[in-house]
Amino acid sequence: MIDIAMDMEQYDCPFIDTTADHGVAFSAIHWDFDRSRRELETRMVVEGGDRDQLSNGLDALRGHDNMHDYSLLSRRDDVAHIKTVIDETAAMQTIRGNDGYITGPFYIEDGSEVWHVGFDRPRQADDTLSELDRDNEFEVVERTNTALPDMQDLVQNAGAAMTLIQGCEDLSETERETLETAVSSGYFESPRDATLGTLADEFDVSKPAVSKNLRRGQRKMIQRVVDALDDLE
Asked: Quick one: pLDDT at residue 161?
């Protein structure tokens, strides 16, 4: 499989148009293409710079000419969860016309969109990029050729990867910041470049407090690592 990550500007995409004019960003968490209707249904997380920016961005998106259906599923402060249906864009049609397919979630901000698309053969990928270059502005961020054994490993070990991600999500903000600072400052190096005292000074707390946060974060992550090792194929 040829996997390509590209930073794409589409001139007929309502999400890109909205981020170009308003301080919002879209992250796709689900997508489904209806071949008969040639429509893309998505569920997106929308983040705004503040509540007003989010409201203005959602209003603009709902009124876009290429927006067929829009539903606000939930909202909290400057983050919303939406369901949308849009027409197939020109770039999407080009990719699908060359037997390409979406391989990962896409992220849209500041008038451009990061896409992850796949092709079964190098010629298909090359033809698609050549066709896209005629009418679209884009940059190939990464291109990889995933061999069959690598694809097998990726699929089989997806559960282990999710276990590690969940471990990161389990961390409180204080635990995450403490772990990140401990690593970046060299606390875990031998010999150590940082001590509990320097970490305590960094966060303006006592040594016992920073030690407690550090141990809690380590305990959570180590348990998730052990669980992930059990899931590895």
From this structure: 67
